[in-house]
């Protein structure tokens, strides 16, 4: 939570966190319960909707990050770092092999701890070079040797490889963008088609990719608008979304933590696809009663 007023515990602009223990009751009071807040709570209480169904393992030699990605959140579940000897005059192949095996062993332990194939539909292992291939081969070999890894053997078709610029977290969006076809059935990719439709509309028929409330077919906006610390500004966009729904339009809320939400944020975080072109919008007097975003 972001603090907006000074008090004895938290300075203005600082963040603070509340930890809620599993199955421990708590009471949350709020003066205005708008539909985005209620929707988020309902999603959080729905185990099926809240759980991430996409796992992404970003790797490079000696570094790995494991993410669980859902519709509304991307969570970092593990970060593994192991020093790997580099090739030079005193390079020892045996020391290199030992370090790589230790690295893969720790990554595999994290994978087994956090990836539940009862929930996860797809696993993407991504890296520059051949690290991803080497780790998959190592994991499948271990699965044939160990009795506690049958889930990996049974679900190896769900494990796919992709190229990543690095094993650092900033590569995640690039991997997800490149794997749209592979992850199309996961919650993380549910919003990608509508965003692609908007980009196509901008290119082919820009008069239908603008912002006029009465003609909106689909309203696209990121969830950052519903977390705005300015209550009046937040209420403005909540009212906008509700009015679009009441007029028969569709509202798609993108998570700012997923690749599609990041792309939409680059377009100010809000956009609309119209039912019909309105090339004359630029000439309309705002006093004529046309409400613009």
Description of the molecule:
- The protein has 2 domains: 53-188, 2-Layer Sandwich (Nucleotidyltransferase, domain 5); 192-288, Ribosomal protein L30/S12 (60s Ribosomal Protein L30, Chain: A), CATH 3.30.1330.
- With 293 residues, it is an alpha/beta fold.
- It has helices at residues 35-45, 47-50, 93-114, 131-145, 150-154, 172-178, 192-204, 231-246, 259-265; strands at 54-60, 63-69, 74-81, 122-127, 159-163, 216-222, 250-254, 270-274.
- Strand 1 and strand 2 (63-69) form a beta hairpin.
- Residues 284-293 have low confidence and may be disordered.
- The longest helix is centred in the middle third of the chain and has 22 residues, at 93-114.
Walk me through the topology:
Elements: H1 35-45, H2 47-50, E1 54-60, E2 63-69, E3 74-81, H3 93-114, E4 122-127, H4 131-145, H5 150-154, E5 159-163, H6 172-178, H7 192-204, E6 216-222, H8 231-246, E7 250-254, H9 259-265, E8 270-274
Parallel strand pairs: 1-4, 4-5, 6-7
Antiparallel strand pairs: 1-2, 2-3, 6-8
């Amino acid at each position: 939570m972001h603090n907006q007023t000074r008090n004895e515990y938290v300075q203005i602009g600082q963040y603070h966190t509340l930890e809620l223990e599993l199955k421990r009751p708590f009471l949350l009071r709020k003066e205005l319960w708008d539909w985005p807040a209620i929707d988020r709570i309902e999603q959080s209480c729905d185990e099926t909707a809240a759980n991430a169904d996409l796992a992404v393992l970003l790797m490079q030699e000696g570094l790995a990050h494991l993410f669980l990605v859902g519709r509304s959140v991307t969570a970092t579940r593990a970060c593994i770092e192991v020093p790997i000897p580099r090739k030079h005059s005193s390079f020892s192949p045996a020391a290199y092999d030992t370090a790589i095996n230790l690295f893969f062993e720790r990554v595999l332990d994290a994978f087994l701890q956090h990836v539940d194939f009862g929930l996860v539909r797809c696993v993407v292992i991504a890296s520059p070079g051949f690290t991803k291939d080497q780790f998959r081969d190592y994991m499948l070999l271990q699965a044939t040797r160990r009795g506690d890894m049958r889930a990996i053997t049974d679900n190896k078709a769900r494990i796919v490889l992709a190229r990543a610029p690095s094993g650092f977290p900033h590569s995640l969006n690039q991997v997800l963008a490149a794997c749209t076809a592979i992850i199309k059935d996961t919650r993380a990719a549910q919003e990608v088609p509508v965003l692609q439709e908007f980009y196509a509309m901008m290119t082919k028929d820009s008069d239908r990719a603008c912002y006029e409330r009465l003609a909106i077919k689909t309203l696209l906006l990121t969830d950052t608008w519903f977390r705005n610390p300015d209550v009046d500004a937040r209420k403005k966009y909540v009212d906008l979304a509700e009015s679009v729904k009441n007029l028969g339009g569709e509202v798609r809320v993108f998570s700012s933590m997923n690749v599609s939400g990041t792309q939409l944020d680059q377009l100010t975080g809000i956009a609309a696809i119209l039912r019909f072109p309105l090339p004359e919008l630029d000439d309309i007097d705002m006093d004529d009663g046309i409400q613009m975003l």
